[in-house]
Amino acid sequence: MGSQMPVRVLLIDDDELIRDVFTLMLSRRFEVDSAATGAEALELIGEGGPYAVIVCDMQLPDMDGRAIYEFQGRAGRADIQDRMIFCTGGSSESRLSEFLVAIGEERVLHKPCRADELFAVIDQMLGAPDGGGATA
Predict the structure, then answer these.
(1) CA–CA separation, 122 and 113 (whole Å)
(2) Domain containing 42: what range?
(3) Measured CA angle at 83 (ends 42, 60), to 5 deg
(4) Residues of the chain whose pLDDT is less than 70?
(5) pTM score, two decimals?
(6) Would you call 84 exposed, middle or buried from its count of C-beta atoms within 10 A (0-12, 13-18, 19+)?
(7) Is 122 within a domain?
(8) How many domains does the chain have?
(9) pLDDT in tens, 1-11
(10) CA–CA distance from 65 to each of 32, 52, 70, 83, 128 (Å)?
(11) What CATH code is carried by the domain that includes residue 93?
C-alpha cells in the first residue's frame, strides 16, 4: 500500500454521548475531528480542513445545521455544502424540516442511527460502491 492520505470527517454534535459514540464508529474507517458547537465547527473547517465529509447535528446550542450550511455557501464553499450529512432527532421547526427536504433525504439521518446507515450515506457521498469506500 502507498502513502494514501486518510479520509477526514468532521462530526458536529453538542451531545457528548452521541459525539463519543459517533466518533468511535467513524474512527474505525476515518480520521475524525469533532466539535460541540457551530462556532467550533466553523473554526475547524476554516483552519483544519479539508474534510471529505461533515456529519452535522441539526440543532446546536449556538446555531443550527442549516446556518452552518448557509455560512459555507456565503463563503463560496459549495464543495463543503455538497459533502454535508445532517442528523436530526426530529426537528419540529418548519424551516428546518423544509431545509432537510430541500437538501435531499439521502443526506439526512434520523437519530438514533446505526453504524451501517451512517457508513452507507458516507460511502454514497464519497462515491464508494457497496460500502467498499475509502478507509483510513
Answers:
(1) 13
(2) 8-128
(3) 40
(4) 1-3, 48, 90-93, 128-136
(5) 0.86
(6) buried
(7) yes
(8) 1
(9) 445 778 999 99
(10) 18, 17, 9, 13, 25
(11) 3.40.50.2300
